[in-house]
């Protein structure tokens, strides 16, 4: 059985109890380096680095369906995560997806802000449709190194919109940083570490 476990926003304490139970029973644990480092010490399964190519990971998993295999995923596996891809590649009877707390959910809890009517998207590997995206009152984006806070701010300024940006960096870790900025305050030179951006209409 292949268990895809959401690790939560980052810090190990956010893994669910079910996730920890499955990790303890796993024969094999697959994940990125930072995820493998967060695995509790009592978990004795063999650790394996996540393949760079998802096709190679799929082939490996198909050859190990009878073992107890855990694939570690950031946040929630089905919110712009590896869960969608694996659900399309593996037999459903051999796949078990365990939800986790996404970085977006975590960020909203830190902001003490509800997620009602929230539009969620990502810039990973794609350019968002900014006209559509910026028409919503409340938006959350998981960003990448190509389209981050500065690029988003420039799209807002191009349209002369009144928006506020909340930026959460390294969420849940000890070096977490949360900033509230106007689009014109975001400088091109500033480097934002792994982040989530929330865009709100000014009231």
3D structure, described in words:
This protein has a 5-stranded parallel sheet with strand order 3-2-4-1-5, sandwiched between helices. The chain has helices at 17-25, 33-37, 54-62, 82-89, 103-111, 130-133, 149-158, and strands at residues 2-6, 28-31, 46-49, 69-73, 95-98, 119-122, 138-142, 163-169, 177-181, 195-201. It folds into 2 domains: 2-101, 3-Layer(aba) Sandwich (Cobalt-precorrin-4 Transmethylase, domain 1); 104-201, Methyltransferase, Cobalt-precorrin-4 Transmethylase, Domain 2, CATH 3.30.950.10. The mean pLDDT is 94. Strand 8 and strand 9 form a beta hairpin. 34% of the residues are buried. By secondary structure, it is α/β, with parallel strands linked by helices. This is Cobalt-precorrin-7 (C(5))-methyltransferase.
- Helix proportion of residues, in percent? 25-40%
CATH topology of the largest domain: Cobalt-precorrin-4 Transmethylase, domain 1
Order of helices and strands: EHEHEHEHEHEHEHEEE
User: What share of the residues does DSSP label as strand, in percent?
Assistant: 15-25%
Look at the structure and give the CATH class of the largest domain: Alpha Beta
Structural class: alpha/beta
> How many distinct helices?
7
Number of domains as seen in the coordinates: 2
Largest sheet: 5 strands, parallel
Rg of Cα set = 18 Å
Strand arrangement, largest sheet?
Answer: 3-2-4-1-5
Average of pLDDT: 94
Please give the alpha-carbon distance between the first and last residues.
50 Å
Apparent shape: elongated
CATH H-level superfamily title of the largest domain: Tetrapyrrole methylase, N-terminal domain
